[in-house]
Amino acid sequence: MADNNVAIPGYSTRFVTVIDHPMVQHKLTILRNKETGPKQFRELIKELAIFEGYEATRHFQLEPIQVETPICETVAYTLRGRKVAIVPILRAGLGMVEGILELIPAARVGHLGLYRDPETHLPVEYYCKLPEDIGAREVLIVDPMLATGGSASAAIEALKQRGVASDQIRLLVIIAAPEGIQTVVNTDPNVNIYTCAIDERLDERAYIVPGLGDAGDRIFGTK
């Protein structure tokens, strides 16, 4: 189940898809717990990515085909030639890739690396490797946390510069802060956002509150 038209207070032209399925919220609770170790954390990120992938591909079109079951011939349905690329924002976004690939095994995977400039505090691209036909693909940007929205917005702009139309881009995150949503909306209101939760705010360190801490550190067991 997804609440597909959730109005975010203060946004007059933007809707965000919040995945409110009971299993999603249960798994998210375990994910938030500081006692959850890296192995279980990685498994939960993967599982939540699958749930989000279902919703982010709900608009895919089908076409009828004739198949023969063990009983008889029948008309069934298959995807209508949709090409997909998954683009994780390094490094935490890597944790979501396997889940999406289980759902869409034929998807290509690009990689986008960004870091925050210590003086300007703006995201700087340090690595980008994308499928050659990225402009012809539906692109799923994946990153567990949408905090300030700086990295997500930079990723959106990087894809658009390489020929991807904004209506081909979907941003999949596990937890979002209102500030991050607003930044993405300001960058491009045509990009669809999918999240399992919209939390309260950012703290003075730009961590999401209540959040789940540093997703990258918890995925990879680093500090």
CATH class: Alpha Beta
Tell me, rounded to a whole number, the average pLDDT.
91
- What is the first-to-last residue Cα distance? 35 Å
CATH topology: Rossmann fold
Name the helicity range.
Answer: 25-40%
State the major sheet.
9 strands, mixed
Strand proportion, as a percent range, falls in 25-35%
Provide an overview of this structure.
The protein is α/β, with parallel strands linked by helices. Helices cover 30% and strands 30% of the residues. The strands form four sheets. Strands 1, 2, 5, 6, 7, 8, 9, 11 and 13 form a nine-stranded mixed beta sheet that branches. It has a three-stranded parallel beta sheet with strand order 10-12-14. Helix 1 (22-32) runs antiparallel to helix 2 and helix 4 (150-161) packs parallel to helix 5 (178-187).
Provide the fold topology.
Elements: E1 3-7, E2 15-18, H1 22-32, H2 38-56, E3 62-68, E4 73-79, E5 84-90, H3 94-103, E6 108-109, E7 111-116, E8 123-129, E9 138-142, E10 145-146, H4 150-161, E11 169-172, E12 175-176, H5 178-187, E13 192-195, E14 197-198, E15 201-202, E16 208-209, H6 215-220
Helix pairs in contact: 1-2, 2-3, 4-5
